[in-house]
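Kindly inspect this chain:
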Amino acid sequence: MNNFFVHQEHARRQSFRLLVLFTLAVIGVALAVYGAALLSYLLFFNRTAVQPELWHPRLFLWTFGGTSLAILAGSFWKINELRAGGGKIAVLLGGRPVAPQTGDPREKLLRNVVEEMAIASGMPVPDIYLLARERGINAFAAGHGVDDAVICVTRGALELLDRDELQGVVAHEFSHILNGDMALNLRLLGWLHGILLLGLAGKAVLKGMRGVRGRSAGLAILAAFGLYVIGYIGYFFGRLIKCAVSRQREYLGDALAVQFTRNPGGLAGALKKIGGLVSGSRLDHPRADELSHLYFCNGLEEAWLHALDTHPPLTERVRRLEPRFNGIFPVVLPLPEPPPSGLDTTARPEPVRPGQAAPLSGAAAIALLEQVGEPVQEHIDHARRLMSGLPGPLRSATGCPLGACALVCGLLLDRDPAIRARQLETVESLWIPAVAAEVRGLYPAIESLATAAYLPLLDLSLPALRALSREQFLRLRDTVARLSAADNRISLFEFMLRYLLTRHLEPHFNPRQPRPAQIYAVRGVQQQCSIVLTAMARVGQRDEDTARQAFDRGARLLNEQKTEITFVPATECGPAPLEQALRVLDSASLPIKRRLLAACLECLIQDGKVTASEIELFRAIADAVGCPVPPWLDTEKGSPPATTPIGGENTIQNINVRESAVECV
């Protein structure tokens, strides 16, 4: 089925089509400006001509070129403004972050629901924002990808929805994250802003010319009026495109939310409450119109033209979930002032108990590939059990920036007491004594954890780690590099933890414009695929011969076009080459990523069984190339992560600690 890859590819093609339409819109608007300028010239400066000339190359060059540059400059300015990610969007609408250690019961419930969905999806926990002044029921997801995504809900949604309804809304927003809709929405926002600027410029000039008289004033007013009309006509047609895309993606978001939760009543209940609430889903913020296509439901007044509706009709959305819906919405009382006190959360499920897992069959492991980006209710239940089973100190540490740093360091502590003592000395030399003490205190709980809890713990810690200063973040990277190299070798687990930590936090501390897929053939990344496949083949294999057999099995999936996928020597498969390979593969197209992940799974099932540790390493590599894999439901009990060094079990990587730390930074 692989709907994740299908939906992501569809979003990519949709972006290309929209870019073509945007280019045509820019050309059309620029030609219209030339026509308006030509008309002004003929009316004011060419009255004596017997037969007016309709082609003026110099006028065309100045108007067409100037208009195009102005639109592109406005669009690029807006796109650059949005580089900061989803948090920037939430702040624009007056949102405030929901702290990981919030004391408000309703905010705790929201955090639990979001964290469950993130763990069930196999992706980092996004930052959570609350629009505390908005009494309507609404929400949105914003960001360029999973690393800078945020979930933002209104106070109306937080206070008026029960847990199932809130989960349905959050699942809907997670579907937008996983299907690439967020990035598509931000591109639309940036592109249309340039066209809108023309209308805004014309409006500003008209306002400034009030009371001015004379021939030159008449020309300026006519030009400003032309810009105003042309700009808003262009924006009108751009908004038509934006709204059509938004309506289509909302139906898909509803369908996938039901697939995630297996509970259509939760999402339908939220939509019904919106229909029965006086304020509905309306947002009162002055900039609500600018971001109208991001919301869960229509955040504006009803449009006079249905083609300008950003969302499908509520009745139609509910009927797709409940075919027998009679169209009557229940009356929902608006929020009183001040806001009511919070409600208690639902009963806690049975916790997960750590232990030893039975190996998984090859067929069961391959089924993981079908679940990329498609969590179901069982994954959400698993996430809920896992979170409730976490020891209290570990759960508390995920909500505090320095506690989260201590937790990350604790995950890297070695089972050998001598090596662990050296690692703790490293922490003491780089951090304040309280952090080192916290690491010592957390280690006993970490030591007893199941394998399936390692990646979720890292994901749960990311919101708190984003609250670090840049200097603290660099220090954490340095610490992680030194801890992983303390035993003079780096296991694949240690490398992946270090890599994922940097991958998910770097966009927050050093925002960059995301790059689209640049590689569309395996031949363009054959060396990188060889390195990753070799690393996976050596996991759990006793010798080079069995590792090569596992590699050959996976390479068959990548050699269909006679691409040279070769078994890489241990000396060429260390941390630095693997890191570079993953960075390159992150820019590859989705079909390439899918084939690579399938090949990695083929490597793992060579010996007829897959351990829980191997599954978690596969999920880490999938995360590293932007394909979140939900947790495997049979690995609730597991053994500690594999410690096979990169380059082979019998290969010792002699690494200078200081050089390794510099390389990591």
Remarks:
- The first helix runs from residue 3 to 44.
- The chain has 25 helices and four strands.
- Residues 359-374+450-665 form one domain.
- Strands lie at 96-97, 127-131, 139-142, 150-154.
